[in-house]
Q: What sequence folds into this?
């Protein structure tokens, strides 16, 4: 049995000021151009990890399209900031909300980027294959989720426009 004290701790979250959201959005969009992001997405598609299955067999092509769409969603995103009190209220309310499929009319803008003043969750990521053990050990802490972006996912799922959400 694993005790919660045995798990890595989430890093301290220092929320940006609302006036800094544009710069945060630009930095995230720029980070999606990195070879690491391409490698990670190709790996995830190949191993059917996450919510997006590989569709065409061209993993690099699919990854490039998905990363470009994410960059475009971020570039076009309306900016939102959620204060500490509203984040706590939303997290408490989420405990009792029924399951709901998200539709385009449910979000405040077609594309958006929201930063929460407090984390809304965390997870323990898996290291990518080939990652040296010293890197995996030093970087295998909890990842804090404190932002989200959303918008349409073009040309991937037929018949359901849906809303693609990325947690940051």
A:
């Amino acid at each position: 049995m694993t005790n919660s004290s045995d798990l890595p701790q989430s890093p301290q979250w220092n929320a940006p000021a609302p006036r800094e959201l544009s710069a945060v959005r630009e930095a995230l969009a720029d980070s999606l151009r990195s070879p690491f992001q391409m490698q990670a997405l190709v790996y995830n598609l190949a191993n059917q990890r996450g919510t997006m299955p590989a569709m065409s067999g061209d993993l690099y092509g699919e990854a490039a399209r998905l990363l470009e769409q994410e960059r475009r969603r971020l570039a076009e995103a309306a900016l939102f900031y959620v204060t500490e009190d509203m984040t706590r209220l939303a997290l408490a309310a989420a405990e009792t909300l029924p399951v709901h499929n998200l539709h385009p009319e449910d979000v405040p803008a077609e594309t958006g980027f929201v930063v929460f003043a407090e984390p809304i969750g965390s997870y323990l990521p898996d290291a990518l294959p080939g990652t040296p053990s010293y890197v995996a050990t030093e970087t295998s802490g909890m990842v804090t989720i404190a932002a989200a972006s959303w918008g349409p996912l073009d040309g991937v799922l037929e018949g359901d426009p849906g809303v693609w959400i990325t947690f940051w």
